[in-house]
Amino acid sequence: MASYFCYIVECADGTFYTGWTTDPERRTRQHNLGRGAKYTRQHGPVRLVYSEPLPDRSQAMRRERAIKKLNRAQKQRLILSAPSDLP
Questions:
Q1: Quick one: CA torsion of 26, 60, 42, 27, rounded to 10 degrees?
Q2: Each residue's pLDDT tens digit, 28-42
Q3: What is the pTM of this model?
Q4: Which residue in 53, 42, 47, 56 sits closest to 82, CA to CA?
Q5: Listing from the earlier edge strand, what are the strands of the sheet with 4-11?
Q6: I want to staple 31 with a disulfide (CB 3.0 to 4.6 A). Which of 16, 21, 36, 64 is the partner?
């Protein structure tokens, strides 16, 4: 079972923020409480739109870097291609 995740949240202004965590829902709450990244404090509230399970921290960080290199259209396609089991 995966214990790490790469995730994307959509900010109130429509921009995306990508990160990694051990619990995407908890991390989304942290972002919305102002205890997340500086970017999400300035662009929140946020909504979890993508979560990808990964086997270890190293792979989660690697995947985060790869997603951050994608342009907006590519991120949107990635989000749409994911199973829709997010809250």
A1: 0
A2: 999 999 998 999 999
A3: 0.91
A4: 53
A5: 16-21, 4-11, 46-54
A6: 36
CA distance 23 to 57: 12
Block residue for tokens 């739109």: 49
Burial class (CB in 10 A: 0-12, 13-18, 19+), 81: exposed
Residue 23 token pair: 């619990």
Question: How many CB atoms are closer than 10 A to CB 82?
Answer: 14
**Which of 25, 6, 26 shows the shortest CA–CA distance to 17?**
6
The one-letter amino acid code at 64 reads E
Q: Where are the domains of the chain?
A: 13-70
What's the rounded Cα separation, in Å, for the pair 47 and 29?
A: 9
C-alpha 38/C-alpha 58 separation (Å) is 23
